[in-house]
Amino acid sequence: METTWVEIGGLVIRAPVTASTNLVLAVQCVLYFRCLRAGPGARAKLWSGFFSMMAIATFAGVLKHGFQHELSETGLFLVSWVSSLTSGVSTYYAQRATAVTHAPEHLKRRFDRLFRIQLFVFLASNVALGPRVLLMVVNTAAGLLPVIGVEAMALRRGHPGSGWIVGGLSLSILTGAVYLVGLSVGPWLNHVDIAHLLMGVSFWLVVRAFRPSVSVPREYVVAWPRIRGMTTRPGAS
Within 13 A of 65's CA, how many CA atoms are on the CB side? Predict the structure, then answer.
């Protein structure tokens, strides 16, 4: 894959589209974190944890893709490691958010044990093998599939917000497939860039699940959410 370069005011940026989409995702995640952190209930706060971890992961991606030529070998390894680890922890937050609120009571403890084991295995794999994209993709897919299943059952029980999460997380898994297949449209829009665009849409779909209890205007995919006088309504979760 051909690497593109851009120089802006003496600043040399490697893979500028990839670095830019990472930065957009990081800003989007910070805004959604702030939005959901102020929301009602444990579910919103756990999802805010998901977005806080993804904000760190995607900002690390800005450095990894855009400025790796400026980093030492150790620096690049640490940035890649931070991106990988926080991505794994974000999946755990998503799992917890669903298990706490929508999983059947008799399964909550089992889910909790399973999710903790998966997180431990993922972290241990990163220590043993180093940060690898394939590890992130596999961990994300394996971790989000049970979340999608539980949310789908919650949707059937009358929780309309779960439908948005099912759609968002399904699209999130698709981003991993796009990355592995290597779908690209020329050197300026490679498979990483396309995956980032899909991630942005998937994040927006997840946050849609919390309207109207949390205000996220539809035109604000990457803009400061207007959070004023938040209220709750049955079925908004």
Answer: 22
Q: Report the distance separating Cα 25 and Cα 188, nearest Å.
A: 18
> Which DSSP string do the residues of 79-102 spell out, in sequence order?
HHHHHHHHHHHHHHHHHHHHHHHT
Question: Which CATH number is 5-208 given?
Answer: 1.20.1070
Q: What b/e string do you get for 169-189 counting C-beta neighbours within 10 Å, with b at 16 or more?
A: bbbbbebbebbeeeebeeeeb
pLDDT digits (tens, 9 = 90+) for 50-61: 999 999 999 999
Please tell me the distance from the alpha carbon of residue 111 to that of residue 182, in angstroms, as a whole number: 33
Distance CA 69, CA 228 (A): 44
pTM of the model: 0.84
Closest-CA residue to 90 (of 36, 38, 130) = 36
